[in-house]
């Protein structure tokens, strides 16, 4: 069930092009049902990649976004699983590669998400923890 509405699945960041915005299809209008989008982010000579949530709202427990380290989508590399409504925050993946996987079921959609991806070099590298205070109906798993 991979969707034609995902856009470019490869996102490259570098010191010259150090950030990129990623949005769900139709954002901020409701995203379609039955979507499965996977994006692979590569930071050329990056020490890490930071993902900052500007907005996140999916159908709780049914539509979700997973984020992981590396260039292969596996449960072992998964860092984050989000479903529901999530306050703006950020997470950092050590290394030059990150994957982002979004799945919606065949029922109700929501507003979706807007994310900022940022290339980080060794000088500017910072670690940001995910917030411990959440909105109602958040299913957050840090793996």
Structure characterization notes:
The chain is built from no helices and 10 strands. By secondary structure, it is an all-beta fold. The chain has one domain (10-142): Jelly Rolls. The strands form 2 sheets. Strands 1-3-8-5-6-10 form a 6-stranded mixed sheet, with no helix packed on it. The model is unreliable at 125-141 (pLDDT under 50).
CATH architecture: Sandwich
The CATH homologous superfamily is termed: Spermadhesin, CUB domain
Annotated CATH topology: Jelly Rolls
**Biggest β-sheet: count, sense, barrel?**
6 strands, mixed
* Terminal residue distance: 25 Å
Structural class, from secondary structure content?
mainly beta
Order of helices and strands: EEEEEEEEEE
Query: Number of DSSP strands?
Result: 10
Task: Work out the count of structural domains.
Answer: 1
What is the C-alpha radius of gyration, as a whole number of Å? Answer: 14 Å
Mean pLDDT: 81
Widest sheet, order of strands: 1-3-8-5-6-10
In short:
0% of the residues lie in helices and 46% in strands. The chain is mainly β.
SSE inventory with pairings:
Layout lengths: L9 E4 L5 E5 L12 E8 L4 E10 L6 E6 L8 E7 L5 E5 L2 E7 L8 E9 L17 E5 L1
Which characteristics define this entry?
disordered C terminus, four-stranded antiparallel beta sheet, 10 strands, single chain, six-stranded mixed beta sheet, globular, Jelly Rolls, mainly beta, 143 residues
